[in-house]
Amino acid sequence: MRAVVQRVLSASVEVSVVFNPLQHRSSRARDLSSNLLLQVEGRVVSAIGPGLLVLVGVHEADTDADADFICRKVLNMRLFPNEKTGKAWDQSVTQRNFEVLLVSQFTLYGILKGNKPDFHVAMPPAKAKPFYAALVEKFQRSYSAETVKDGVFGAMMKVSLVNDGPVTMQVDSPSLQGAAQSSNGDDGSVRDGETRVPKEAC
């Protein structure tokens, strides 16, 4: 699993809703105005203030262990300054009581073959949809259902954000071959002054 984490001042997800403005008119009117049959209306489905915008790519081989790792890592990343001490990179999103916006993005596992992207290593939509939904629930259980929001899986979305910094980090879960978590900077230890979301919570 891959997560691109952005520290933001605000972020929102807008979904394009396709509708027929002439659906209640006569067939004659629809025929005459066929080029106007479809219009697109934007609808904001999620929005957050200060916090993290997290783009999530699901690999075809991902398991619950990968989801647990990403959940724990994102919620514990110290990307925010401590306003009391002035120390940078000192607090996590949970310590600041900020919000999290999750957005599914299979293109994070795109592979260029020539100039055309290929997405065969991304988990197929039928399997990825419930897997991603479980990930969202995992974040909400580990933090708060009110502060963890998401977009619409599989929809054409317009994601707006104000990146704070800018700060952008990429996090990959350990491989299925048993790669050491220490290679990702997560050895499970608690550092001085750090409050961590426990493994059991994710």
From TrEMBL:
GO annotations of cellular component type: cytoplasm
UniProt-listed Enzyme Commission number(s): 3.1.1.96
InterPro entries: Daa-tRNA_deacyls_DTD, DTD-like_sf
Positions with biased composition (Polar residues): 170-186
Protein localization: Cytoplasm
UniProt feature, compositional bias: Basic and acidic residues: 188-202
Molecular function per GO: D-tyrosyl-tRNA(Tyr) deacylase activity; Gly-tRNA(Ala) deacylase activity; tRNA binding
Coiled-coil ranges per UniProt: none
Pfam family name, one: Tyr_Deacylase
Keyword hit for Cytoplasm: yes
Entry's family note: Belongs to the DTD family.
Protein's name in the database: D-aminoacyl-tRNA deacylase
Organism of derivation: Eragrostis curvula (weeping love grass)
